[in-house]
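Lab manual, section 2.4: Encoding a predicted structure.

Procedure: take the sequence of the chain (152 residues), apply the prediction step described in section 2.3, and record the output as structure tokens. A sample record is shown.
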Amino acid sequence: MPLMVDFAALALLAVVNAINKEQGEQVGWPEFTSAVAAQWSAIPAEQRSRAVIFTSNYGEAGALARHGLPMSYSGHMSHADWGPPPDSAIGPVLLVYQKDNHLIERFFTGCRQVGRVDNGQGLDNGEQNAPIALCSGTTKPWSALWPSLRYF
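Recorded output:
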């Protein structure tokens, strides 16, 4: 019986999500964090001290922080007030962005897609099918990029 309730709730959420997408943005956080964690683990251990996780929004950064991954950064809204990564974090950069924001890659070098997020529910939210890219570094130091990465 609980399985039926979950499907019914998901079907209702899909309708509500069409009106106000914020209701469905947390669906799939465990799958999201697992996908990012798998790609973080694939970065060689000797490179992780200078590596950065950069997400497209504050919700993603917060979800990763709650699940034991290294501090992630985002230029989205007030999360940007926490500041940029240190300039010594020269890469690699694990870049997680929403599927319609490929322009973000212009701030990074040597990007290649290494994964994709599947929320496991088929709900079309901002993270469903979001690409995960591994970039070799940034086009400028983080401190110089930060004003361009901030958005509302």
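Check your result against the sample. The helical segments are 2-19, 29-42, 58-66, 142-149.
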